[in-house]
Amino acid sequence: MKVVYTADHLRHDPKVGIEQSQVMPAFEHIGRGEAIREALQADERFQLIGPNPFGLAPIRAVHDPGLIRFLSTAWAEYQQTAGSVADVMPDVFYRPALRRGMPERGEPESILGRLGYWCFETTTPLTQGTYVAALAAVDTALTASQLVLGGERSAYALCRPPGHHATTGLYGGYCFFNNAAVTAHHVASTTGTKVTVLDVDYHHGNGTQEIFYDRDDVQYVSLHGDPVRAYPWNVGYADETGTGRGAGANLNVPLPVRLDDEGYVAELHRVLEAVQAFGPSLLIVSLGLDTFITDPISDLAVTADGFERCGAAVAALGLPTVVLQEGGYDVDALGDNVRRWLVGLGA
Questions:
Q1: pLDDT tens-digit readout, 248-280
Q2: Closest CA to 25 of 160, 125, 115
Q3: Cα dist. 215→24, 145, 237, 340 in Å?
Q4: Domain boundaries, position 30
Q5: Which residues are catalytic?
Q6: Is 87 contained in some domain?
Q7: Pairing of strands 321-325, 218-225
């Protein structure tokens, strides 16, 4: 199996984030990508290649141009305004209720205000190379889709930073550009066919859902921790099924605490029936391995054996499949967990 990888991911090098009212070491860090690369590079079934450049057009087709512009300059602007700060995070978040009954003013002028206008939470610092890394992650995803459209049965993109929490106009959840959404839109719009995004990350891909919620050419299917207890808290409920033309094309399956291999694989088989009924020409998997039994920020109980079974279940659909990396934070196990999932897929 071809693995698309770029060392540009090292340019996004956060050290801290604010989680649960504490300044904590960043869970999403360069060691994640390197652990995956090392595990796949050591297995002769995988061949690492670099991404092709696609430019900004596919990103502009999905994301607010203001978000793109902001991310391209924000870190440097902050240095000029606030002094030398490696990890840049918002202080104040824009909420419409702040200006209830008043004229809408749009994006603030100060970088200190603009941070909280374009970001929705405090765990996702901007670093000096974040924008370059985020662009490279999109190129990595699009290159994997290019390989599959060109005849490969499947391909894996080692996307870092991940993407599924980024909405049309907001970054957060360790995500800046939505790699899966950019890829799904690009394929659907250039081929005229239907695409399914299957999200198996522990955390619901609120950004991917938001981007496609009213569309019938891209199906979004997600297995994730119940938002009653799990990030992103406000979205990912079972009654969110799409709207307008997209009614019925969104499927959320919130999962109970400590769900094990048997339970998880059973739920996966159930949602794969919905994928099959939708009839996509291409499957994009947002692959999160934070469903792992010892993941430090999640509470499911899937094992490496379970991951291989999941890959095999997806392979049984017989669809051309693009796998994009999302979460997974037990770094010691992450590389092998990715490898096992891809082996199940048929690497």
A1: 999 999 999 999 999 999 999 999 999 999 999
A2: 125
A3: 38, 20, 18, 33
A4: 2-54+130-345
A5: 165
A6: no
A7: unpaired
